Amino acid sequence: SPSDPDLVARARAAKEKLGDKVFVLGHHYQRDEVIQFADVTGDSFKLARDAAARPEAEYIVFCGVHFMAESADILTSDDQKVVLPDLAAGCSMADMATAEQVAECWDVLTEAGIAEQVVPVSYMNSSADIKAFTGKHGGTICTSSNAERALNWAFEQGEKVLFLPDQHLGRNTAVRDLGMSLEDCVVYNPHRPNGGLTAQELRAAKMILWRGHCSVHGRFSLDSVNDVRERIPGVNVLVHPECKHEVVAAADYVGSTEYIIKALEAAPAGSKWAIGTELNLVRRLANRFAAEDKEIVFLDKTVCFCSTMNRIDLPHLVWALESLAEGTLVNRIEVDKETEAFAKLALERMLALP
Ligand code: 13P
Ligand code: SF4
């Protein structure tokens, strides 16, 4: 739907008043009405790097979700302030791993006598606490665009990986990219005693996957893939690696949001694509590429927007920008110093991956 012209004018005026003092980052899953005001757009990896590359901006307004804003705060200097236009924009996947649960898991691995062999690899979609745990135990962060490199690095440091919190990205990367078998992976369930695993199972596993998932991508199914192939002969199925393993295995291409955009840019005219990722992005791509005669459809019409990404809307963005323009700092995301130090270690290991 077209944005309210009054709000558009207000956002523009506030941004103009702030000038170089503000830098607006927009994740690819953001609404069109918000994306139009982003100074850069990107996947979570690109945005983390872009935030770190703006030392002159006093305010970083992060149009995305809470863990992204935390990561930006960790990677920017102390006098830069990161603002999340709606504090309720969380991520249900990141919430699936708490610091207490992960500490308990580490005790279980210690009891089983394997903690020393385990390198934690945590998906960007996790709280700063989990990133700090990862840094403290010699591990790295990864995103969906560098998970393969992160896992290869981790298996050079140790024999086993504890992958947090997205079981699907962990499994898909281990099996598709590293050539492991499904039997090399076990799932640690934080709601069961000892994660629901025996010490023997833990000792035999190479990949210990945390039982977390994305509530949006988890809804694409093998039926979604089969149905679209039947409906649109010759369609290319392109999905995000947060989808279930069976969906990824049945797809033609798999990659992060940035990869998805590049693949469609490179696609020949006349090609047909079914995309399995968040709806705001798919709609935007469908509109953008219609002019180039590329047919782009949503992989499954019953899957909805990411509700927390959608919390950042134009009214919230206008409120944040106008507040900053008037000199009032609102909705600052600030990670405490101790957490930040260890989390930064893990994020910097990611940024240094070959
Ligand atoms: P990417 O932007 O890394 O592809 O991740 C998708 C996502 O779910 C972010 O929340
Ligand atoms: Fe979290 Fe999934 Fe939404 Fe990304 S799409 S923010 S992983 S719930």
TrEMBL record:
Keywords noted in UniProt: 4Fe-4S, Cytoplasm, Iron, Iron-sulfur, Metal-binding, Pyridine nucleotide biosynthesis, Transferase
InterPro entries: NadA, NadA_sf, Quinolinate_synth_A_type3
Subcellular location(s) per record: Cytoplasm
Cofactor descriptive note: Binds 1 [4Fe-4S] cluster per subunit.
Cofactor(s) it depends on: [4Fe-4S] cluster
Residues annotated as binding iminosuccinate: 27, 44, 123-125, 144, 240-242, 257
GO molecular function list: transferase activity
Keyword Disulfide bond found: no
Residues the entry annotates as binding [4Fe-4S] cluster: 91, 214, 306
Entry EC number(s): 2.5.1.72
Reactions it catalyzes: iminosuccinate + dihydroxyacetone phosphate = quinolinate + phosphate + 2 H2O + H(+)
Protein name per UniProt: Quinolinate synthase
A Pfam family this chain is assigned to: NadA
HAMAP family linked to this entry: NadA_type3
Predominant subcellular localization, coarse grouping: cytoplasm
Annotated metabolic or biological route of this protein: Cofactor biosynthesis; NAD(+) biosynthesis; quinolinate from iminoaspartate: step 1/1
Function: Catalyzes the condensation of iminoaspartate with dihydroxyacetone phosphate to form quinolinate.
Domain of life from the UniProt record: Bacteria
Similarity comment: family membership: Belongs to the quinolinate synthase family. Type 3 subfamily.
Top-level class of the enzyme under EC nomenclature: transferase
